[in-house]
Amino acid sequence: MRILILGGTSEARQLCKALVAQHAYHIIFSLAGVTHSALPVPTEMRIGGFGGVNGLVAYLETHRIEAVIDATHPFAAQMSRHASDATLRCRIPLLRFTRPAWEAPPGARWHFVSDIEQVPHALGQIPRRVFLTTGRKDLAPFMTTPHCYLLRSIDPPCLPLPPRTIVILARGPFALDDEIAIMRQHDIGCLVTKNAGSDATAAKLEAARQLGLDVVMVNRPSLPPARECTTIELQ
Ligand code: NAP
Predict the structure, then answer these.
(1) Residues 6+ apart with CB under 8 A from 195
(2) Cis amide leading into 173 (omega within 30)
(3) How far is the C-alpha of 61 from the C-alpha of 40, rounded, in Å?
(4) What is the spatial distance between Cα 185 and Cα 162, in angstroms, rounded to a whole number?
(5) Atom 42 of ligand 1, residue of closest alpha carbon
């Protein structure tokens, strides 16, 4: 069976490895190409967008793909919607790998917002020291806010930065002690994060809880219905 995996998460790579090890599938692993340092997978890899839904349909037909696994990030909504539309048009199955969302532990100070544009409103107008972990591409809403930002991303941000922003480059997994240390070192008062649900980046939430910090949590975008799985273990 020829399967296209839409990657972009550590779980997508793990899933790819598990399926390749079955020796029953021909796997093609696809990445958008947003990070400069793509980690290797033990199969054929293609990099770059397909050119919208029509491009994806053409790709699926040309490469005789028989099933698609959408293992993109929960916030890669455009790719997930395109995968849904294209597999419907090609009449092939779609399986979506979805990480369970994070849930607030007792005593945590989480404030939920529906999208990144709502974060400045949640932060308020009194200047704060904010740990921004929502990615290097979503900076526009913060450009005119009064806060100081510690921005963590895998690759250097290429857009103009909000004023008073310090950038640190790092890729998870992150350890709890390190997260507490970095929040203390930068005198952070508030953590901003998308509800990615990844174990590799969850330590910041426990660090914020232990330090009594506010967390602004961006809820996930809604996606079209699809058959979903939440664990990689094969039956
Ligand atoms: P997006 O807005 O849903 O996708 C934008 C465009 O990028 C898509 O329309 C598609 O281009 C291309 N694309 C995305 N994923 C692709 C894939 N796996 N293979 C080929 N093309 C892909 O997604 P995004 O938020 O820019 O994220 C891009 C990638 O980074 C995703 O694979 C995602 O898993 C990963 N990522 C995203 C986040 C996040 O917070 N959004 C965080 C960590 C990792 P065409 O329309 O030309 O096909």
Answers:
(1) 74, 101, 102, 217, 218, 219, 220
(2) yes
(3) 26
(4) 20
(5) 73
Top-confidence residue, 154 or 6: 6
pLDDT tens column, 3-48? 999 999 989 999 999 999 999 999 999 999 987 777 899 999 999 9
CB of 79 sitting under 6 A from ligand 1: yes
120 Cβ below 6 A of ligand 1: no
Report the separation in Å between the CA atom of 189 and the middle of ligand 1, taken as the mean of its atom positions. 31
| Beta carbons of 174 and 200 less than 8 angstroms apart | yes
Which ranges in the chain belong to alpha helices (H)?
A: 10-20, 52-62, 77-90, 119-123, 176-185, 203-211
Q: Is 133 in the pocket of ligand 1 (CB under 6 A)?
A: no
Q: Which domains does the chain carry?
A: 2-98+223-229 (3.40.50.720), 109-218 (3.40.50.720)
